[in-house]
Each structure stands twice: as C-alpha cells, then as structure tokens.
C-alpha cells in the first residue's frame, strides 16, 4: 500500500493494518501491539490535529489529553468514522469526564450510564460499535508491578504461537499448560535463557470448577507471597490473570521439561566415567539448591509446598551441564503456617500425590493432627531416592522400582514409600528397604561414596518415622568438632539441616573427587543398550499397601474409598445451591478415628458395679476404626441461577447506602485472584467508629475471639472471606450486576421473605434447571419409572380451603409429565399428632378417619407444618402431596407395617422432597418470618456493608456469613432421626427449609448419589465397602422414638442396596445390617467385624433392644439388635485370609422375618476357640496385643472362662497355631446363649452362643490354635 493511499485512510487505517492475530488456542483475535499506539512516530500531535482538523495552537489541552491519557480511546473513536467534528466533540466530552485508557474496556452498563457517553450522538448502535471496536486496542501489558489482571472474555491476549507448529499442551487433572510467545511489547522484564534470548512462556490454565478455582486462588496467593525471594530454584512467577471464567498463571517455559522428563530423556547408562562423575556432582548441587529453596519457603515465608514430586520440579537448560537448573513449581497445594506445628490442632491440607506423601500427611488429612513443613522433606527424600535409582540403574529400572513399590497391586496408580501395619503404625515400605539395601551393597552406593552418603542421609534423616526436627532451631543445632551437623539417625531433618548435610557431601566430593563421586567399577557392563539392575522383583509381595489415601485404582480397605471417591467426583457433582449467595459443593470427608489407649484386662470405673470393663485393651498398636464423617465444604460461585432472576428483585431499595471507608479499605480489590489482607487488630478497633468495613471486621474479631491477637488476616476463598486461613468463611461477598467478574457471586444481599413469590420462584428455577440438565427427576431417562404411593393428598388450587386424601388406585393420575407429587420429610414431635385412621365400624363418628379425609380436610385444621407443605406444593405446580401421617393409616389396625416396606419407592418417586428442617413438630411450620433472635452483632437481619471504593465503582455487598449446610441441615434436629436418613438417601432432590435460609440439594445429601446406590456399583471394591459401612455407621447413631424400629427404618435402603448388587452377583444377600457376597467374597466377614463406637457422644455400652412379641427382632451378631453407635474395624483385604463363616436360616423355629432380596438368615455357623487375654512381658512391646471391645458390660457378666473367640480373619502367614509370633487375628467374642441350634442340614445339634464383643488377638493368645476348634451357632 502506498503512502498516499494510507494518508487517504487516515490514522485509523494506518493503525489497523498493523493488527496481529493472537494464538489460536486463546481465541485468535486481532490486537494492536502496545508499541504501535505508544509510538510517537505514529500517534503524535500533528497526527491528532490532522484527524480532528485542528489548527496549530487550537485545543492544545485536548491534544495533550489524548497523547498523555487517551491514546487508545482516541483510536477506537476514529474507527467509528464519526467525522472530524463529531470525533473532536466526543474527545472533548471524554476529557471533561476524565474518560481515559484506564477505563478500557468498558461494559454495556458503563456506556449506558456514564456521563462520558451522554452526548446525543451516542446512540445505542454507536455505543455498541464502540464496545466492539475497543477489543483490538485492549490486549494487556503484563508488568512486574501489576502482576494480576482481570480480563474480559472478548479481550485479546498478546500470545503468539511458539513456532511453525503448535506443540501439544501438557494436561493434568486440574490444569492445562500452553506454550506461547508473548509479544515483545506486552511483557516487561521478560525471562531470558542462557544465550540471553527471550524465553517462551508457559500459560497454565486452571480448569473452571469449584475445587480448582480455590486451587487457583491458593496458588496465586502463594506465588504473590514468595515472589520477592527470587530464588534460582523456585519457579519465577510472571503474572496472573482471569479471562471470562478462566484462570491463568504465567511462568517461563521449562525447556528441559520436568525432572521426570529428564529421567526419560537422559540415559546415565550410556555415559562414560567422567560423564557419570559430572552427573553425580550436578545432582548434589541441585539437591543442595532445592533444599535451600525449602529453607526460604519454610523459614522466610513460613510456607509448606505440599506436593513435592518429580513432575513439580522443572528443568531449565543452562548450556553448561547435562542436568541444568531444577526449580520447584506448582504451588497449588501450598499452605502458609500461622504458627509452630505443635501449636496448631489440625490442617486444611487437600489431597497430595500419594506416592510422595508423608505418613503424617495421611493423619493430617483426616483432621487428626497438624501437618509440619517437614512433610516436604519426606517428599524430597522420596524424589532424591528415585533420582539415585535412575542414576545407578537407568530409566527402565526406575520404572520397575515404581511397579515393585506397588507390590502385587499393579493396577494401583501409585503407592507411598511407607505402609501401615495391622495395628496402624507406619513403617518404611518393604520394597524401598529392599532397594535401599541393594543400592548400599552396590559399589557405587557403598560407604565412602557420594551416592552412599546420600542414601544414608535419605535413610537416616529424610524417610524417617521418628521424631521431627525442630525447624526453628536448626541454625543453632549442635555440630561436631568438624563443623558437621549432628543429627541422630531416625530424626527427620529440617530443610536447613538437609542443606548443610548435603554441603558436607559436596565438600567431600570437591576434596576427594574421582572415585568418591563414581567408581566406575562396573563400567564394562554400562555400555549403551545394557542395563545395570536393581534387586529382583518379588512377584508375590505380601506388602500391605496403605489404603486410607488411595490413588487411581482399586483399594480393598473401606477407608480407601472415601478420599478416592472425592478425587473421582471433584468438579463433576454439581453442588447443592441455596438461597444464600453461594453454593455448597461436595463434602470432603475424613473418617478414620483411633481408639483411646487403655491397659490390660481391667474394671472400667465408669461401668456398672460388678461388670468387667466394656473396653479391654492390652496396648501395643491402636486399632483404626471408622467414625461419623467430618465434612468440609467448598463454597462455589454459581452463575446459573442468578442469570434467571431479575436483578432488580435481588437488590431492593432497603439495602444500606455505601459505607464510609478508611483509606486502607478503599484500596482493597476483593476480586483480585489470591486476595488477602492483614489488619492490625488495634487499627480495626480504632477505625470501627468511622469505617463501615472495619466495624464489621472488628465485630468478627470479637465473635471469633481474635481481639487479643496482634494481627488478623482475611483471605478470599471463592466469594467469601476466611479469617486466618481457617476453614469456615465469616463474610459472604455479593457483587452487583454492574461488577463483572466470575470470581464473586451475584445473589441476594438480603434474602427474600420465606414463602414469598420470589422465594418460590428461586426454588422453581432450581428444579427446572435440574429437570433440564441433570436427569434427577423421577421418570427421566436415567431413573426408573414412577411408582405411585398407596395414597396421596390432592392439594387443589391456590387459595382452595380444603384438601383431600385419594387412593391412587381409585383415580386416574397421569404420569406422562413425570412424578405428580411432592413428599414431606418432617418431625412428628410430641402428641397430639394429626393423622389418618382406619374406619371404625363401632364408632362411625370417630374423627380423622380415612373415609372423612377422602371427602375433604379443611386446610385451616391442618397443623402449620402441613399447611406450609400444601402451600409449597401448590406454588411449585404439583397437584399431589405425600405426608406419612396422613397417607399411612395409623393405629393398631392401620397399615403401617405394609406401607413401611414401600418407603423405598415413595421417596425415590417423588418429584422432590420438602424437608421441614426448622420445625420441631407438626405445629411449628417452616414457611415463616425469621425469628427475632440476635445474630452475631445483635441484629435480626444479617449485617450488610455496601462497599464502594469510589463514586464510579460498582457496589460490592459484604454480608454476614449465614451459609452453614452442615449445621443447619446435616446436624439439624430433623437429620438426627433414623427414619429421615432413608428419606435423604432415596430422595432425588430435596429442598431444606431451615431457620436461617433455604437450601437446595440435588445430590440427596447422602454420599453424593442421586441414584443411590449407582455410584457404589460403579466404584471399586474398596469404595463399595466404604459406601455400605458409611451408611450403617451413620444410621446407627441416629435417634428413634421406638427402638424396635431399628431394623425397619432402614429397610428400604437395605433392600435397594441388596437388589442393586444382585444384578452383578446373584448370590448377594443381606439383612440385619450385614451383607454377604458369597463364601469367597469377604463382605460377610467385614460386616461382622463391627464394634461399639468409641467416638464422643457414643454410648458407653450397647444395650440389647427388647423387641415386642410378634416382632422378628434381630440376632446378637447384628448391631441392629442393640441401641447405640457402631464403627467397623479397618481391615486391609489384601493382607488378610478370611476363615469359613456361614449364615443359615434358624432351624429350631420359623424365621418369620421380613423378606428382603433373600430370606433373612438368623444363625451364624462358625468355629470357636478358647483364648486368653494375658500377654507376658517377655514378648516385648513389638509383638502386638489383644484389643477387645465388649458390646456391653452385661455381655461379660458371669464366668469369663465361658468366653470363646471366633476367628473371622487372620493376617496372611502360617495357619493358626504355627509359628504364630505376633500374627494378628480379627475375632468375635461369644458366650453361651443357653439354647441349642440344629446344625446345617439338621444333621446334628450345635451349641448356641451369642456375640458379646469383637477385636484383635495375637495368635499366641489362642489356646487351641493347633486343634480344629468347635463348630457352634451364634444366634
């Protein structure tokens, strides 16, 4: 194009031909490089005057404004072709209202409301064109000072392809990494490689889910906190940005890949002697550098990395060495400590990488203990050990080591460097010990070599299970006369001690060199194509694999399934939204509990007089048992529901005006990724009288007892604020529609009135979205057909004064549009109860009979809870309602026994369930105005502070946090009732009406499965075990008005569970809380190994339930025959041999039991043995102990010599009685029942026993271990 033609097109045309197309993976939009519009040779005073047709000296102030503050605004305006006069008029108006480049890009709301666009010429079409044209001029410039950028989805990115072909992007579970070039005008201080060339850039894109958004926030915060370290072994953070709903981090591209990539690329077996010596020395220096990086992280920034592994150690080529420079990367699980480990009680750590996880991390993730920064040293030791395996034997052997560590469980994705013994103690993985011994016997790893010294460091002070070093004292640690660190073997070193111990090895290497680094004794075997070998693999490795934190495949322990399930479902299950501003996501649960330690056979002082102690513990190793789940909640930002609600309805005029703010609060940017702010508490108190936000935060300090602290930190998590990194949010942040960011929630600062049109509109939207997208509604493609209950309540139209009960077989109820009814879950409370009774021929005038209720029931006569359920059902557009007391005939002549069996279909076929969580009885109701009780600052409504940093800023509403699904619903009174568990688990969708707000749950709130038990069927065996054990342990702790209902109140769930598993295994059966998958499956054995719960609040004894005459009852081996909570013994199936156990129908009387999928068995046919509980001192503390928990004191009354044990399972090894040593057996404890039973096949009579306890017994305590024992019947 010639200069004359460019002149004719003007400045806009000259600029537009310089547009560049961005990277196709980021949209491929065109953008103008910053150097063009900043170029004084392109946009200069004369050029501006020419476009506006201004003479020299005319409107100099406007020209100065354009060149100094509005270059991009000017160019966008020129692209609209308004003409010189109109363009000049617009620019003068922009100058008047100080509309500059800083405001770009602008939103539609801004253009419609801001006075800068108030001229008549700004028609809606021209404003739309301005918004469209602005994007090409809005590519961000990434500066070191402004490391966080919030971009609109339409905003182009200054990223260019890295070469002629696009490289595949590395992708992980939570992110994908793109390799790009950043245009030279758009990245200040670019990283340079060893040849002083600009490096390519890695753009890490975090997947948009609730969990991964929180990971992005955590990583962004950590990177901002540590950026000033500028450590050569810590990845350099360049920038953070959000774009639309995406989250991105920018780093230099690691041209050498990860450490794992290096091991695969480089073959140490092909190197000559000098090359190997150089490689070992390089490894020493890199280990030292990584340790020093952890010193800076641990000591200077008080950070724990939390996920050290080869994939998170990146390699940058340096042009000098084969290894290059290793840098620690990926801070998504990093955690800043608020104090010494021993001063903290727990950790908020999420799941780390199993193979490199420390033993204490396993306990920390159960919420049992804080996690030290020294867990990073364990992980670093694992990486260093693998590095040495690779150095000595090459990549193939390093991969074999990974297979060996998994033992025979080759389908496992990973296994840690330790395992748990049967008693629960951690021990170094036997495969690691075997490889370690082999490497120390290798000439290159022997004493007097650098590799040998590293192996000793790893063995003695990194992969240790003993005490942890006090990090705060490492600099003053005692040293020997030589100046070397003195650290006892078995003590985990701090990062500083590790660094100095490596320094000692480096000093020796530099002093002695040569053979100290690498002897080369077997170099004749180290030719290319040949492989030096590690120890031979053990194909039948009996190593127990630790299963409480599983990896990717099948674990057999039930404790394995919980964390495995959470990982597999992260980001897939849609969390239960609610009427508040946030969304509750899935529970992340920790469910392992250790038993308290007690000693010997002793009398429990808390037990009844004359009774033997309820728990007998002869201590060696604590038994691990499951307890009630302890959920942690993820608060996700939900945009789907708010988009369907009129914003005007959300933000009523009653909201408070913008609060007065202090200088510090005005500068806060809550939408910044990784936002956190620290206040001095005395400043908050001093400014509480003049700053609205400081007043709110100081009030929170008072409520949460932080006033004595010097400082308090607030960290944004999703759309909430947490205090001092604690789990529970204290402030909910709600954005106005004008504030465009996906990081903050659009919602209700003040909730709509309960029972109002807006209230029901939101519930209808919840249900409509679920109907359209999730297939949860009964009758949808993924659910079974709708089965109508025997009776329903016809609610009539809105305002109708009466309702009536209908027999569903007597009326036509169409099902073509799905389920026609809603079910109510409610507490009955004390008498009187409003019920439906059978007709009484002797008293035709009796009130509330079925005949009367089929004619009509005045709505005014219904108790308040039923009236509210009627109102809600009408408002949600359903014609029928199911309420148990009205649709099941009550009283002795009623049909409760038959109807109770149908609960499985009543709740699973309901369109949704209304849970009256607020109500305590039928009279309470649940659609009512919030009570006048005080909230945290003495107000009836929650406190709301309107935050506006300046007049032009969109408001943000800081609200008192009232979202607590765990307390309001799961731990609420309604959910503590046993019958309600079944209703929760079988319901497709539930709406919970609580005292503070309404919650919506489309996951049934029970184990996250809306199609119970479909997830259990899809899971591996460990998951399936966890599912049924979680079901039963939770149920066992719930209340019943009538204890004899314990088998009945879960019958529907149990029936569904058994029927589902029978589809894959026709031999599957179950009843009385015990499941059986056949003689070789082991599920029956696990089901029998329950014991009295030892959690806080559990009963000290299990009392037998006295079932009324005619009731089927439950056998003694079933926990359903007792009152009180139970737990299951933790058994790793791969390490246990199961003994013969068989269930038989009872022979001496007809079982008469309710039929499930199979006839209910009553008799447990087993072999019993004599045992003793004494453990003699000469066995030593490492030989194991008896650990028995009796069900109740009454179970041990009488002659203790009558007690016998039933060996259900045994640790793998020799048969019972042969070379027992400390081999442990899982047993039931039984005593004579005083009756006899006919044996299998009615061939002979067996002695009848009843169960009185369960536990662990070492083989040495079984007296007749050499014999066959005695076959008995446990009844």
From TrEMBL:
Residues 519-590 are annotated as: Disordered. InterPro entries: HET, Kinase-like_dom_sf, Prot_kinase_dom. One of its GO terms (molecular function) is ATP binding. It comes from Immersiella caudata. PROSITE patterns: PROTEIN_KINASE_DOM. Residues 537-554 have a biased composition (Polar residues). Transmembrane segments: none annotated. SUPFAM superfamilies: Protein kinase-like (PK-like). The lineage of its organism: Eukaryota, Fungi, Dikarya, Ascomycota, Pezizomycotina. Residues 163-506 form the Protein kinase domain. It holds the Pfam family HET. This is Protein kinase domain-containing protein. PANTHER family: DOMAIN PROTEIN, PUTATIVE-RELATED, TOL.
């Amino acid at each position: 194009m010639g200069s004359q033609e460019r002149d004719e097109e003007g400045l806009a045309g000259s600029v537009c031909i310089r547009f560049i197309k961005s990277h196709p993976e980021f949209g491929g939009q065109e953008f103008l490089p910053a150097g063009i519009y900043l170029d004084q040779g392109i946009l200069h005073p004369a050029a501006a005057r020419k476009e506006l047709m201004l003479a020299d000296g005319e409107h100099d102030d406007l020209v100065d404004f354009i060149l100094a503050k509005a270059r991009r605004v000017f160019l966008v305006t020129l692209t609209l072709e308004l003409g010189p006069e109109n363009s000049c008029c617009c620019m003068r108006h922009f100058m008047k209202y100080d509309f500059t480049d800083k405001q770009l890009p602008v939103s539609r709301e801004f253009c419609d409301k801001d006075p800068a666009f108030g001229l008549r010429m700004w028609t809606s079409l021209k404003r739309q064109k301005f918004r469209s044209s602005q994007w090409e001029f809005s590519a961000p410039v990434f500066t070191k000072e402004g490391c966080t950028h919030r971009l609109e989805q339409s905003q182009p990115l200054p990223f260019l392809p890295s070469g002629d072909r696009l490289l595949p992007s590395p992708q992980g579970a939570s992110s994908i990494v793109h390799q790009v070039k950043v245009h030279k005008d758009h990245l200040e201080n670019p990283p340079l490689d060893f040849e002083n060339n600009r490096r390519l850039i890695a753009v890490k894109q975090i997947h948009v889910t609730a969990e991964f958004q929180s990971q992005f926030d955590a990583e962004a915060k950590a990177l901002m906190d540590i950026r000033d370290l500028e450590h050569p072994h810590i990845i350099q953070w360049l920038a953070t940005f959000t774009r639309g709903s995406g989250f991105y981090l920018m780093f230099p591209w690691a041209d050498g890949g990860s450490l794992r990539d290096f091991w695969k690329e480089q073959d140490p077996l092909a190197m000559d002697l000098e090359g190997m010596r150089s490689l070992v020395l390089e490894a020493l220096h890199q280990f030292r550098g990584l340790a020093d990086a952890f010193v800076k992280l641990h000591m200077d920034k008080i950070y724990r990395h939390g996920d050290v592994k080869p994939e998170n150690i990146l390699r940058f080529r340096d042009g000098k060495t084969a290894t290059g420079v290793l840098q620690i990367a990926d801070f998504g699980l990093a955690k800043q400590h608020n104090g010494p480990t021993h001063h903290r009680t727990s950790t908020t750590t999420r799941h780390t990488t199993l193979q490199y996880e420390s033993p204490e991390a396993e306990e920390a993730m159960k919420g049992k203990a804080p996690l030290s920064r020294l867990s990073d040293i364990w992980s670093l030791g694992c990486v260093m050990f693998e590095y040495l395996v690779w150095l000595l034997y090459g990549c193939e052997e390093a991969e074999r080591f990974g297979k060996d560590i998994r033992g025979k469980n080759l389908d496992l994705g990973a296994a840690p460097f330790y395992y748990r013994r049967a008693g629960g103690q951690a021990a170094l993985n036997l495969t690691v010990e075997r490889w370690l011994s082999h490497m120390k016997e290798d000439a290159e790893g022997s004493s007097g070599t650098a590799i040998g010294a590293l192996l000793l460091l790893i063995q003695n002070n990194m992969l240790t299970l003993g005490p942890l070093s006090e990090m705060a004292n490492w600099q003053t640690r005692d040293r020997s006369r030589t100046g070397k660190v003195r650290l006892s073997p078995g003590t985990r070193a701090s990062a500083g001690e590790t660094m100095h111990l490596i320094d000692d090895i480096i000093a020796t290497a530099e002093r002695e060199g040569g053979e100290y680094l690498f002897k080369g004794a077997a170099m004749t075997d180290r030719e290319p194509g040949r492989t030096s070998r590690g120890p031979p693999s053990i194909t039948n490795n009996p190593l127990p694999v630790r299963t409480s934190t599983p990896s990717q495949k099948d674990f057999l322990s039930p404790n394995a399934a919980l964390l495995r399930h959470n990982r597999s479902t992260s980001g897939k299950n849609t969390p239960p939204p609610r009427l508040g501003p946030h969304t509750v996501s899935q529970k992340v649960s920790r469910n392992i509990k250790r038993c308290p330690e007690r000693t010997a056979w002793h009398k429990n002082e808390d037990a009844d007089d004359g009774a033997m102690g309820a728990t007998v513990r002869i201590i060696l190793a604590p038994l691990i048992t499951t307890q009630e789940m302890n959920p942690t909640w993820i608060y996700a930002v939900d945009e789907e529901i708010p988009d369907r609600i009129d914003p005007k309805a959300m933000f009523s005029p009653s909201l408070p005006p913008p609060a007065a703010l202090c200088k510090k609060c005005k500068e806060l940017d809550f939408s910044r990724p990784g936002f956190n702010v620290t206040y001095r508490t005395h400043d908050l108190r001093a400014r509480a009288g003049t700053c609205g936000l400081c007043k709110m935060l100081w009030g929170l300090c008072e409520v949460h007892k932080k006033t004595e602290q010097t400082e308090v930190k607030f960290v944004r998590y999703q759309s909430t604020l947490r205090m001092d990194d604690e789990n529970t949010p204290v402030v909910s942040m709600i954005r106005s529609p004008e504030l465009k960011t996906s990081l903050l929630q659009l919602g209700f600062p003040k909730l709509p009135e309960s029972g109002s049109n807006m209230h029901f509109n939101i519930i209808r939207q919840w249900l409509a979205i679920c109907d359209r997208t999730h297939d949860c509604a009964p009758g949808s493609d993924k659910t079974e057909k709708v089965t109508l209950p025997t009776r329903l309540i016809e609610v009539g139209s809105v305002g109708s004064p009466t309702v009536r009960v209908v027999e569903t077989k007597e009326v036509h109820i169409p099902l073509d549009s799905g389920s026609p009814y809603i079910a109510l879950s409610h507490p009955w409370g004390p008498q009187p109860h409003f019920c439906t009774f059978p007709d009484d021929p002797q008293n035709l005038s009796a009130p509330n009979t079925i005949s009367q209720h089929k004619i009509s029931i005045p709505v005014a006569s219904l108790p308040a809870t039923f009236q509210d359920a009627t109102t809600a059902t009408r408002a949600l557009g359903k014609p029928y309602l199911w309420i148990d007391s009205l649709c099941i005939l009550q009283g002795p002549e009623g049909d409760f026994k038959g109807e109770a069996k149908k609960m499985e279909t009543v709740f699973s076929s309901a369109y949704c369930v209304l849970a009256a969580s607020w109500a305590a009885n039928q009279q309470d109701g649940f659609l009512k105005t919030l009570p006048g009780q005080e909230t945290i600052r003495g107000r009836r409504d929650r406190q709301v502070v309107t935050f506006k940093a300046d007049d032009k800023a969109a408001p943000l509403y800081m609200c008192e946090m009232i979202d607590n699904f765990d307390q309001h619903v799961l731990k609420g009174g309604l959910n503590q009732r046993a019958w309600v568990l079944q209703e929760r688990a079988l319901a497709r969708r539930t709406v919970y009406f609580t005292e503070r707000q309404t919650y919506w749950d489309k996951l049934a709130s029970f184990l996250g499965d809306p199609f119970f038990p479909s997830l259990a069927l899809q899971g591996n065996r460990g998951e399936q075990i966890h599912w049924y054990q979680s079901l039963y342990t939770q149920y066992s702790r719930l209340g019943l008005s009538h204890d004899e209902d314990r088998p009945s109140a879960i019958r529907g769930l149990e029936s569904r569970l058994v029927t589902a598993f029978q589809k894959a295994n026709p031999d599957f059966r179950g009843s009385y809380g015990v499941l059986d998958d056949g003689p070789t499956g082991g599920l029956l054995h696990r089901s029998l190994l329950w014991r009295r719960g030892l959690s806080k609040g559990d009963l000290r004894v299990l009392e037998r339930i006295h079932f009324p005459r005619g009731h089927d009852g439950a056998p003694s081996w079933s926990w359903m025959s007792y009152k009180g909570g139970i737990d299951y013994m933790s058994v790793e199936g791969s390490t246990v041999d199961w003994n013969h156990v068989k269930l038989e129908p009872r022979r001496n009387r007809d079982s008469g039991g309710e039929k499930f999928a199979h006839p209910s068995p009553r008799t447990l046919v087993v072999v019993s043995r004599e045992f003793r509980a004494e453990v003699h001192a000469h066995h030593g503390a490492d030989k194991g102990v008896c650990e028995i928990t009796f069900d109740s004191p009454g179970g041990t009354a009488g002659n203790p010599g009558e007690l016998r044990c039933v060996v259900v399972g045994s640790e793998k090894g020799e048969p019972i009685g042969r070379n027992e040593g400390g081999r442990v057996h899982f047993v039931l404890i039984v005593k004579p029942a005083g009756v006899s039973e006919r044996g299998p096949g009615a061939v002979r009579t067996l002695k009848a026993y009843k169960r009185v306890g369960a536990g662990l017994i070492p083989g040495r305590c079984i007296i007749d271990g050499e014999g066959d024992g005695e076959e008995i019947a446990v009844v």
